[in-house]
Specification:
101 residues, mainly beta, Jelly Rolls, four-stranded antiparallel sheet, 8 strands
């Protein structure tokens, strides 16, 4: 299965996508792909689970996948966080997952 998310950078250049499973069954996330069309220099992007770093990402276009997959319970959240972008830049996220953990 897959899901798509988006976020727009605010005046400070920050954009965050928050990913939460909608049911108590949870998800097993196998890949997170990101992209942002930005001309800003010094843009950073990080993938986190409950605030802990999973992987830094190339902010314009990148994918994190492979073993181990990321298990998300109903109480967990995974975020993709861009900083240093231009206000109004659009970030997009595509995740691939299976239901259950």
């Amino acid at each position: 299965m897959d899901r798509r998310y988006s976020a727009t950078a605010n005046a400070a250049g920050a954009a965050t996508v928050t990913i939460r499973p909608p049911s108590s069954a949870g998800w097993t996330v196998t890949q997170v792909s990101i992209e942002m069309d930005t001309e800003a220099t010094g843009v950073l992007c990080n993938l986190r689970k409950n605030g802990f770093l999973i992987s830094p990402l190339v902010p314009q276009s990148d994918a994190a996948g492979g073993d181990p997959p990321v298990e998300l319970q109903a109480s967990d959240e995974m975020t993709v966080e861009w900083t240093g972008a231009n206000a109004g830049d659009a970030g997009r996220v595509l995740i691939f997952y299976t239901e259950g953990t």
